[in-house]
Amino acid sequence: MENQQNLELNEQAVDALRTSAKWSMFLAIMGFIGIGLMIIAALVMASVMSAIPSSPMSPLGNLKGYLTGVYLFMALLYFPPVYYLFKYATDMKTALQNYSSDLVGTALNYLKTHHKYLGISIIVIMSLYILFIIGIIIFVANKGINAV
């Protein structure tokens, strides 16, 4: 026999979830707009950079494809958390309108995935910062040893 527990939400909790869904929708829309602007910036960079002649003496000429790639890569990285936030907002709004506890669970799973993605991203970025700092320290130490 299953031990099933029901969780009932009072009006304050429902109101908090409703407000959370509204703000999450706003943030998701702003995120999608930001991703769109990144893609537009990548296309503009591609067209502007194609006008710069390639030469070993031109530092911008060597960065032609990289800047476009960086903007597209950043847009690709930003898409999942924005999508998860959007799904949370839409599912939570529907769940509260229909009084569906199953849909509340689905919406909260999207929010959990959003937070998990951001947390893992922060861990990766902080790890890269630490590796970068260690690399700089090693580089400077080697320059000091070679100078003597």
Describe this structure in words.
The chain contains 4 helices and no strands. The protein is 85% helix and 0% strand. It is an all-alpha fold and 148 residues long.
List the helices and strands and how they pair.
Elements: H1 11-50, H2 59-62, H3 64-98, H4 101-147
Helix pairs in contact: 1-3, 3-4
Short note summarizing the structure:
With about 150 residues, the protein is mostly helical.
The overall strand count is: 0
The value of Rg in angstroms is 23 Å
Shape: elongated
Helix vs. strand class? mainly alpha
Strand content: under 5%
Q: What is the typical, i.e. mean, pLDDT?
A: 89
Give the proportion of residues in helices.
over 70%
H/E element sequence? HHHH
Low-confidence stretches: none
Distance between the termini: 77 Å
The largest sheet, given as strand count, sense and whether it forms a barrel, is: none
The helix tally amounts to 4
